[in-house]
Amino acid sequence: MNYFRRFRDAAGSVVLLVLPFFFLSANLKDPAETNVFDQTLLQISGPLQYVATEAATAVSGVVEDYVYLVDVQRDNDRLRLRNDRLEEENRLLRIQSAENERLRDLLQLRQRLGTETISAEVVAKDISPFFRVMRIRLDRGARDRVRAGMPVVSSQGLVGQIRRTAGRHSDVLLTVDQESAIDVIVQRTGARGMLRGTGETNRYLARMQYLQRDDEVEVGDEVYTSGLGRRFPAAILIGRITRVEREEFGLYQQVEVTPSVDFSALEEVLVLTAGSREQARRARTGEDEEP
């Protein structure tokens, strides 16, 4: 039995070795020189060659697709990293551009005010439950010659005044705080009144008091500091009138003003350490304020 098995295995090996030779020989012969045996082999090998070719093509396609996908994945990873880096650089450039624009606006504001100022950064904010800024803290204080009552401005307009100082920091009383009171003027008509903050936690708002009933004001009018009292220099924008209500009776009309300053986005400000040059001149000469 073992002899027969060995013989069978040997014979099978010989056939497997010799058969491809015959197939190759039949395929390489000139068709005019083939015999019956060669033609039989060609008929048998034709389908086998077709199947083998299709299988090889399929396997080759799969391998090529895999290699292509690997290369594509590698390229995608490289492009993704590059895109992330470029987006980060672009974000930093936008931040720097916005900061440069704010600082340029502050510099122009300082030149326009014509007064001594100290630049300061907002380092802390008290936020209401409705995400409204109720108080801000600056990185300048008594050691920097900042005193209570000094006006605080930004490129958007009047922020408020220094409430108190402590070392290297100071707190600002905002124009919308209920303790804030500022003498103001409506630019378009010259109407004057006292602007008081409402202190509301869900919106930024101030009301213009003691505005005569016959004073001409309308929604959209800009409100500026009047300069009376010499605490605030004149002509600093505070906000715009957003509501006017004239009751049937009474001496005054009710006017609401929305501040021009976006307290939520406030980052840099100027602290006015002295009045305007014109006010300083008047203080030295004893000249009265214009009515």
What would your notes on this structure say?
By secondary structure, the protein is α+β, with helices and mostly antiparallel strands. The chain has two domains: 1-113, no CATH class; 118-285, Thrombin, subunit H (Beta Barrel), CATH 2.40.10.350. It contains three helices and twelve strands; from the N terminus they run H-H-E-E-E-E-E-E-E-E-E-E-E-E-H. A six-stranded antiparallel barrel has the order 1-2-5-4-3-12. It has a six-stranded antiparallel barrel with strand order 6-7-8-11-10-9. The longest helix has 78 residues, at 36-113. The chain is elongated and about 125 Å long. Residues 276-284 and 286-291 have low confidence and may be disordered.
Q: Can you give keywords for this protein?
A:
single chain, 291 residues, alpha+beta, Thrombin, subunit H, 6-stranded antiparallel β-barrel, 3 helices, 12 strands, 26% strand, elongated
